[in-house]
Amino acid sequence: MQRLPLFTSLTVTAVMSTLTLQPVWAEVNQVTTVSVESTQDGIEVILQTTDPNLSQIITSTYENTYVAEITNAQLHLESGEPFNISNPTQGISGVSVASIDENSVRVVVAGVDSPPSVKVGQSHENLVLTVAAPTTPTAIKAIAFPKNRIPKTKLPR
Questions:
Q1: Which of 57, 76, 49 is nearest to 119 (CA)?
Q2: Most buried of 27, 72, 142, 152 (most Cβ within 10 A)?
Q3: Taking the complete model, does pTM exceed 0.85, yes or no?
């Protein structure tokens, strides 16, 4: 019978210490507004966030698409839906912002013929993706001279 009070006090101590422990969670950043604005060279994709210090942004390019994945962030738009816009400017076929999972947001910018050039920056509480529309290479026109009309030049010796 002597063991019972000791066992009870150890159990109560374990329960009390478990109840007082609180897990340490990193504050998840909220993306609350997404807008697209025209610029002289393309567009800016602006994500308004609750904290200007974003954890990590992982970028990649695949075929004609630029992708930015923002970790430790959640998409909380007023509409409750992902953000999508088609053909915001010449050379860009679309922009989308959607949740990957409960703690990551993906921004996708699709070019028409090639991937756009994107710079990621921050302004106040906003994440700003400055997107330069891809340029279509200008074709070089070959000039054909008839054989009898090729200009002759003499090189100095």
A1: 57
A2: 72
A3: no
Q: Is-contact 134 118, C-beta < 8 A?
A: no
- State which H helix or E strand residue 156 sits in: none
Cα separations (Å) of 51 from 24, 33, 84, 116?
A: 18, 13, 23, 27
CA angle centred on 50, ends 44 and 54, rounded to 5°? 70
Query: What would the DSSP string read from start to end of 117-142?
Result: EEEEEEETTEEEEEEEPPPPPPPPPP
d(CA 116, CA 112): 9
Question: Cβ of 135: how many Cβ atoms within 10 Å?
Answer: 13
Q: How far is CA 49 from CA 38, 52, 55, 122, in A?
A: 20, 6, 12, 10
